Amino acid sequence: MTLIIKSKKQAEQPDHLSTSNSFKIMSTSLESESERILELLNDESITSKKVRNNPIMKYWRFAFAASVLGFRAQQSGTKTMCPYSSYSALNIEAESGFGIKQTVLSQLVEEKDEVLLEELGGVDGIAVALRTDLVRGIHDEVEDIDRRRKAFGANILPNPPKKGFVQFLWPAMLDINVLILIICGSVSLGLGIELYRPKEGWKDGGSILIGVFFAIIVTATSDYWHNSVFEKLLKDSYNIQIDVVRSGSRQQILVPEIVVGDVVCLKHGDKIPAHGLVLEAHSLKLQVDKAIGKQDHSDHVELNLTNRNAFLLSGTKVVDGFASMLVTSVGVRARCDHMISRIGHNSRKLTPLQARLKKLDSVIDMVGYVFTFVVVILVTLLANFTGKDGLAKIYDTVNIVVGLIMSILNIPNPWWLSLLLTRAYAMKKLKAENAMVRQLSALETINFATTICVNKTGTITMNQMKVTKLWLGKDFVAQGAYLSNAPNVIKLLQEGIALNSITGCPTEEAVLSWAVQDLDMNTEEIKRSHDILHIEAFSSESKKSAILTKRKAHYEIYEVHLKGAAESVLAMCTHYYDASGIFKALDHNQKMKFEQVIQGMAASSLRCIAFAHKEVEAKEVQDVDKVEVPKDGMTLIGIVGISDPCRPGVTDAVKDLQNAGVNVKMITGDNIFAAKAIATECGILRPYSGEVIEGVKFRNYTPEERMKKVDEICVMASSSPSDKLLMVQCLKRKGHVVALAGSGTNNSLAMKEADIGVFMGIQGTEVTDESSDIVILDGNFASIPKVFMWGRCLYSSIQKFIQYQLTTSFAGLIANFVGLFLSQELTLTALQLLWVHLITETLACLAFATEKPTKELMKKPPVCKTEPLITNIMLRNILPQTLYQVALLLVIQIDGASIFSTDDDMLPVTFTFTSYVLCQVFNQVNARKLETKNVFEKIHRNKLFLVITAVIIILQILLVEILKMIGDTEKLNWPEWGICVGVAAFTLPIGWVARFIPIPDKQVVSYLMVVEVFGRLLLRKLTSMLTWASQVLYVMHRNQQLTAFLAITDRHRQCASLS
């Protein structure tokens, strides 16, 4: 079958036939008859404009044309065809069964080719080719959907190229510390072989290179694992649904399930899931993604019902109104190449905690290098008096340099490793509790959060709406007695609900369901009896929606139906219907009574929706496309009260956040009475604390007044999206770290502005989801305190490991420095320190990463964002431990032979090394609690911590007793092992006593930061002075050379003149 559509432009061109490959033209009578029928179908004098524009009529018109033209080709009896030049032939591939190629559809939409669209018969012609009913959609059958996927592809983007393990090795090798150790190890290996032959000389340098190799493997493995965990969790986070029409029913499906030919229903907050053509649009406004190519230069595009052939590109956001579209391209064919590239090469910026760790690490590295440089100079000077030859001096110096570097500079980087492991573990645990982390920085930043702004609907409440009250005239109507009221009022109420409602919104669904069940509303019959001329969609700013219709039975009667927030609709009304259906004027007293009714319903936590009606004269509707819905003179029909219960556990969750020092503020579009009732019920608004304010009042404050009052506000009602954004901006300017939790599209702007955006995932929209950092998959507000708890646990675990690691590094560095000058030997060799870094510290990273959060974390105030990572509490714990370990190591190094009454030099070395490692085992236990005196509290719950502690001890025993050649150690007997354990365990009581030492409020590290700034300034000045001095010396040297050259020249001239 071939679909041939004749265009006006082509009809003007002469027909050309090919003798071997042509159509056999049907008889002139058949052709003229078919053309005559098509002319009748398009004759404006015969059919009305409404009938001509009716989608069903267009569908059958083009179906008839396709049938006639297809019959012509069938009668021709030819297998190969060369199309007329006066017709556009859409070749149909036999296996697909559709009348148009995907390349044509992609070209049509991406290039916005209106000429091609006209040649193809417009939207109706394409619908025929795609076998889509524009009213009923495609068939909801597996075979039809699979056939479309096979022909046009699935709506899935290819996964970005996954980074393999090898790609993480290269960055790990380029670490400056690794490169320095590789160079030093290579020099040590070469000199050792040269001095002591390969059998003995490879040990020091070779062991260093082997250790560095394993450090690179550990770093690359941790990076690879962390990247895999994050990508897997992020992949699971995309679960957005969209409305489609299939087999005549509207249903929700996941975005990847969309196929070409689907009729998609778009609403405010949706993101267009594929390329397509507009079928119907009302007050549609689109926000164009600037990353999408071939779009208009404007950020917003407005479409209406008359713009029937508008093109829609995938990725565009619906910011207002609603529409339906015919999908023409999906998946890769609906994405531009640069968008795929952007997704595949998303740059990962440093998170705030990563940046702070990197800065702290760079400071310590700089101090370590300067310290090592000074020591090397001193050692080099002392080496001149040892009597060793040149190579031996260099060899000893290199080993000393490596030992000192290993004392202060750690490979693999333990802080970075700790952050990766802790964060990956926290993300996996949160996923199990239905919280998805989409932005890595959010899990770190939430530790600093001081305020959380929450939306009411869908966040505090369950978003399960139900109509519970109806007010008609002057009184409430009892349930079950709705139809006993005046028929004309009930009929208007039914029409207002059926015509002025869209599916997909919980509030709309609740009203529609109530009207069908309790008012016996026949939605389809009402819609068939009315023509919809103009729609003003609901928006968060106006808080109402309106529709202009015309009854088919009375073409001269135009009606406006208004629906929205009760107080907004009431302000536009001048009349009302009483329960008997009598039309009455709405005076001031009656309006006050209605306002009291609305306030009473709102105080019962009900959302109040009012319905109004007005008849419009025909002269006011001259041009349907330009008509504006009247904003006054409306007649109030009735008011419904909709209940939306609070989520279970929301009161306890709010209390947990408040106990954690987090201010909870509720921001909602509901009126002030409903907002106050809900806030009181869930504990946000407490007696004699907090202020309740309306959005318009907050908006009209001066900037100074807003900054003064923003902390006191607990509830902001009747707020618009701009009010929410303004609230977040004011809080941030006052120094707060702000989180915002919500699901509706009206939260997206404020969510982008907030430091942490929390998306309540069940009822949310894609625009809001994209603005969020954390997704609560089940939409349960009780999950938010868990996210806060894990964020604080992450920060606390990093601090615990930093305390542990700094104690280890400082003890080794000071012991090596002092021991070097006291005994001309390093207390701990480079190989021993490398063992501690690779085994002890790496396993300790995993132990601290798996520490679970405790309730005590939610009893502390948020950490100040400017507070240093190393606190006074940590310094108080570090210093006593470091001093004890240094004293222990030096005593064993200096007097070890006399203490153990032995002439074996290896025994004190082994005892020193083993005691140092076991000190770190007990130091690991001591660092579990930063403030609590009982460091063994709940240690049995972290079985991995206990296992890792045992593994470290076992590995140390294996190294000393079995692999002594590698560790350069000597075997220890049971009493010696007991002494090692005893002196190492003494770190526990030292840590317990240290926790009684009082600490100052002012952070000591902040003074060190001042010293660092001063040092950098001094270094910059010194560098500039040295640069200036070198330039002066260079100029002086050059002048001397020039003077000497001139003197020689003069001498030659004098000699020449004498001769």
Automatic annotation (TrEMBL):
Lineage: Eukaryota, Viridiplantae, Streptophyta, Embryophyta, Tracheophyta
Assigned protein family: Belongs to the cation transport ATPase (P-type) (TC 3.A.3) family. Type IIB subfamily.
Regions that span the bilayer: 168-193, 205-225, 366-386, 398-421, 801-822, 828-850, 944-962, 974-994
UniProt keyword Zinc, yes or no: no
Main location: membrane
Keywords on record: ATP-binding, Calcium, Calcium transport, Calmodulin-binding, Ion transport, Magnesium, Membrane, Metal-binding, Nucleotide-binding, Translocase, Transmembrane, Transmembrane helix, Transport
Domain Cation-transporting P-type ATPase N-terminal: 119-193
EC number: 7.2.2.10
GO cellular component, one term: plasma membrane
Membrane-topology descriptor: Multi-pass membrane protein
Name this protein carries in UniProt: Calcium-transporting ATPase
